[in-house]
Every structure is written in C-alpha cells, then in structure tokens.
Amino acid sequence: MNLKPHKTANAPYTLDRFDGFPDAAERKGDAHLCSLSKALEHPNVQLMTNTKVLRLNTNEAGDTVTEVVIEQNGETKTLTAELVVLSAGAINSAAVLLESKSEKFPNGLANSSDQVGRNYMFHQNSALVAIYTEPNPTKFGKTFGVNDFYHANKGYEYPLGHIQMLGKSDEHQIKADSPVPAPGFTFELMAKHAVDFWLTSEDLPDPENRVTVENGQIKISYTPNNQEGHGYLKEELIKALKASGKFDSFLFKGIYFSKGMDIASPAHQNGTTKMGTDPATSVVDTYCKAHDLNNLYIVDGGFFVSSGAVNPALTIIAMALRVGEYIKNNVLKS
C-alpha cells in the first residue's frame, strides 16, 4: 500500500458521510487511492471498465490457462496471457472457475478436489445500537475495538469474537432497523443519543456452505453456525454497557436493539478456494497458485481455511503483496 502524502481532490468532506460512502475528497485508504490510481500511471497497466469475465480456457493438456473470455459492453472478446491472476472476491472467483467447466473439467477449473465454492464464510456479524443517557455528538465513531472476548476464558470454553465501534447511525438508518421509536423519542432524538457497536464472531468452514452456479446465476447456500457464541458476545456487551450506568438511567431501563447481518451482506466473504499442501483437499498452494494449473493464481479471500473474527481485508492485502513478490522474483524472472 502506498501511503505517501497525497494531494486530495477539492471536494466536500464530512465525517458523517464517510463510512459506507465514496469519498470524492480522496482521504480514504481505499483501493482507488492506494492501488489503482498508482498502478494506472504505468504504461503497461490497463483498466477495462464495463467488463465481465465469463470463463477461463486452457490448452489441450489442461494444465495451463491460455485464454480469458470476457464480455465488454455486450461484446464477447478473448484475451490471452502467459500468467493469469484471478482476484474477483471469494464468491465471484469461485463462480468464474465453476463456469470454466469443459469436457476435461466437468466440475469446473482448478476443481479436481471438488473444493471450489465450498467452505464459504462471511462471519457472524451484528450491529448493536445502545441509547445513551446524554447526547452523543460524535460524527464518526470508529475509535476503539475490544478483544477481551476473542479467546476462550473461564466463562466460555470457546472464543466469542470481536467488538468495535461502528460509524454513527442517523435517524434514517435507525428507522429502517427499528420501525417503532423508543418511548418518548423521535428517530432523530434516538440518533443523537445513539452509540453504535459492531460485533463479529467466527463462522466455521462447512463444505455445504457453498457457491454454485445454476443457469448462469450465482447461488449461495449457507446455514449459519456458531450462533450461540455470537449470542453470548451480545450478552457480554450489553452487560458491560448496563454496568457503566450510562445506559441504564432511562425510565425504561435502557433501550437496546440489534440487527444481525444475513447472507446479503457479503463484505467479509472468504473460504471458497482454500489453501493447502494437499491437492486432493485444497484448491491453491501456499502462494495461492492453483494446484491443477501451471499459471493460475487465485488471490482474494478465497484462500482462507478459517475466518477468525476480524475483518479479513488486511490479511488479503498482505497475501496479495506476498504473492506479487513471489511472482515477480520466482515466476517472471524464470
């Protein structure tokens, strides 16, 4: 990541429209600022917009990817390359591989292990909003995280997860999650008193939690697990908030509501092309190269074999840098 001083764009900038919003002022450490804009300064880098990868084709031997078939503005085209890196995210990378099936690979490309698409994980996530006794003037509340419950302790045999602050809710978000306001409150007043938390617990790898493709449409099959531990994590947070006395001085003994994130919230997607040393039970090796192919690297959240209970983004970035360095020093030079 290039974090050198950057000349920001001349654009409005407000913290209450920071998290979850594009930042025209270019003050966020996002992919555009840290990677794409710098990469596009090189003459041998091209960004193709309005483009979808349809499939990957191989040579007759089936050990080398030779073509990337794309659709751009409704037109099908074929690109050729000596080395291919697939980084479409755990869901879409799996879908591309499954759609690349052929007579030689009836179950999809890089899928001799039958693991492509399996073990899909995206965490047990919940947003919890507590109504504070005093107004909370914070515009953007991501100021601390708590890992006190990340490991097993005397009260719980297994880890519960991670707690952090969440970007400040506004009245529209609160109304969407809680159609009836708290007694004596308007939605606007609730937002002014809100303190927002994000809770993350690990979901476990399950081969039946998977990505498949049916008639060109991606299908995700997912049965939640580790819900009991996530429930305990919520209880511990609420217990701590009540103990502070700042969330229990209302006439109605404090108001809490929370909302779990379902399968339509795939921000932490991982686990569909898992890493391993045995080609019979994994998809990629320790440098994210597909076991079945000489020149295909799959570098996104798919390589995770377990999800932990924190955002996987930094680990994905670290692995991308590691794999890039490996390709540069060991593959391209040869």
From TrEMBL:
All copies of domain Glucose-methanol-choline oxidoreductase C-terminal, residue ranges: 265-320
Keyword Glycoprotein: no
Entry-linked Pfam families: GMC_oxred_C, GMC_oxred_N
GO MF terms, alphabetically ordered: flavin adenine dinucleotide binding; oxidoreductase activity, acting on CH-OH group of donors
InterPro entries named in the record: FAD/NAD-bd_sf (IPR036188), GMC_OxRdtase_N (IPR000172), GMC_OxRtase_C (IPR007867), P2Ox-like (IPR051473)
Cofactor(s) demanded: FAD
This protein's UniProt keywords: FAD, Flavoprotein, Oxidoreductase
Record flagged with keyword Flavoprotein: yes
Superkingdom field: Bacteria
Residue span, Glucose-methanol-choline oxidoreductase N-terminal domain: 24-123
Family: Belongs to the GMC oxidoreductase family.
Protein name, as recorded: GMC family oxidoreductase
Lineage: Bacteria, Pseudomonadati, Bacteroidota, Flavobacteriia, Flavobacteriales
